[in-house]
Amino acid sequence: MAKAVQGVRSILFNTQMYVAMLVMAVLFLPLALASRKGARFACHTYCRWVIWTAAWMVGLRTEVRGTPPTEECVIAAKHQSFFDIIVIFASVPRPRFIMKRELMWAPILGQYALRIGCIPVDRGARGKAVAKMLHDVERGRLEAGQLIIYPQGTRVAPGEALPYKSGTGILYEQLGQPVYPVAVNVGVFWPKRGVMRRPGTAVVEFLDPIPPGLDRVTFTRRLGPEIEAASDRLMAEAGLRLAAD
Prior knowledge:
By secondary structure, the chain is of the alpha/beta class. Helix content is 47%, strand content 15%. It contains 8 helices and 7 strands; from the N terminus they run H-H-H-E-E-H-E-H-E-H-E-H-E-E-H. The two termini are 31 Å apart.
């Protein structure tokens, strides 16, 4: 019975979340067209709405640990579901994502993403995608901000293992900026597929930044283990028993 009730609450929450996206996109359109700052304000407002409604509609609270950066930097985050995008975006002042090119054509989401300065890349082109990514990042550096990348390139369910791709290391080497690793346990409560949203505390933790100046190999050897170890710790706190336990 309790699971059925939570399922109904989840459906209602998911429905209002997408309705709110449409309504806010229309209401904030003049601001978004006027300036990139206005578009970011609209997106921040929507993210905070989702966080607030998740807490009282499905019992999913949010906790942000560590110190979210405010300077120009790269944020390299574990990606488990749509909700970690929401929480990370809401936590920093001038975020923009490196995103897969297909999202450009997503109604509302794609248009606002481009307006706030997100950088689309074609993941299928591999080397060309990385070169294009670097070119677009360089073009966008006139406006300081927090460039968010998912080093594994896709959503990774709790307990699933996927390799870390080379793009983050290349960005680190070329940009000369600190990289903030981010660990999450969001997928325990908000899976990458399905409608069920489970009650609990979704944690996003900003770890100590990796300073610029390391060689790419040393950086890569630090990044993945730091994110994975912290994410495993957070998922264990949330009650998930991993295969390695």
